[in-house]
Amino acid sequence: MAFIGLIEKGFSLIAILLLGIxxxxxxxxxxxxxxxxxxxxxxxxFADTPSLEWSYHVTSYITSSPIYDNGYVYFCTADGTVYSLxxxxxxxxxxxxxxxxxEVPSSIMATPALDSGVLYFGTDDGTFYAIGSQRxxxxxxxxxxxxxxxxxxxxxxxxxxxxxxxVIHSLSTANGNESWNYSTGSGISTQLLGYDSSIYVAxxxxxxxxxxxxxxxxxxxxxxxxxxxSPLGYDNNIYAGTYDxxxxxxxxxxxxxxxxxxxxxxxxxxxxxxxxxxxVGSSDGYLYALNASNGNLLWKFxxxxxxxxxxxxxxxxxxVGSGNKALYAIDAANGLPYWTFTADxxxxxxxxxxxxxxxxxxxxxxxxxxxxxxxxxxxxLTLSAQAIVTPTAIPSATAPxxxxxxxxxxxxxxxxxxxxxxxxGSWCPLPGLATVMIASIGIFSLRKKQGK
Length: 452
Prior knowledge:
With about 450 residues, this protein is mainly β. Helix content is about 15%, strand content about 35%.
């Protein structure tokens, strides 16, 4: 914040000129006033926040999370376009064009899978595509009965995906020939999971199904709620959310229900896990941290809007988007925020980090398209709810300064838990201006002694 630095320098100069001529009483009052000024500006001057490297706006809704591979970022839109952007040689001063675009005649509503230089994705008209990621060449395509809006799974030379007719298809990555299929009896529009030598699928009928990957035979099926969403495998368990607001833990081998945690809105995004903790967002506007072994609430963070994409965990920091246009960086240990970046519309994508660059997309709103962002992450992080970043080139609303709710009693009731302070940050209490004031007082005192 350069303007704050200029203000500080101006007040420093005034302090030098005035402190030497003020009476003792007036000088004391001035020191108090200027010190208060420093305290107010210090969190803004020293907050560690990301900087916007570049952004790329499209004319349609962005319906996938970004994928980074070998210097390129890929994403898809609701008008049926796949984009490839050169993230390394992007020049914000020039007219920026993607490396390539690939257009299909139907909407793409899920994040593709990328494996060995091939992008795999399905469309609303039931066509499943395999295209080369370098030149966007069509390798093969496969037609199913209804729309295919699930994120595929690439496993052992096969790409596996579901469709709205409830059938799971396993195709050879080499030529698109079908290896096997399995009918679940209910629509599939979520991300498939490969974990511990099994495949796990969430269905619109509310079940989690475990399949063996060779022949597609069912191992077990467990009903967990009104509608089930993308599962996570962690520490020999399966974790998934439901439309009726629950987070459910299952034994990965047997499908036995271990615990259930209730939120106040649909849990439509995949959870994330780290260090014995499950992190999951809900449409009730909270990010929850739960004990992975028993489901006890550790803390919850108010995101100001529905969370519809999985959080990213990197080096003890959680990055998660919200329907209130915000991308948050949160301390995974206590749920306190480091910074907030405000986008141009709701953030319903999972970020990706590569070489201190964070890529994420906004969805778009009111007929306008979404935007892909590249943020340069700060070298240091300071816990401060005041660290709100709004790029001036992008119309946006300032997100509220959030705090975390911490449950010290580890209760499974999501409404309990005392409010925790959002943190004062680790800024220096005596930056430039205060240092100059102290020095000026010292000079004045020395001058007074020499005059005696």
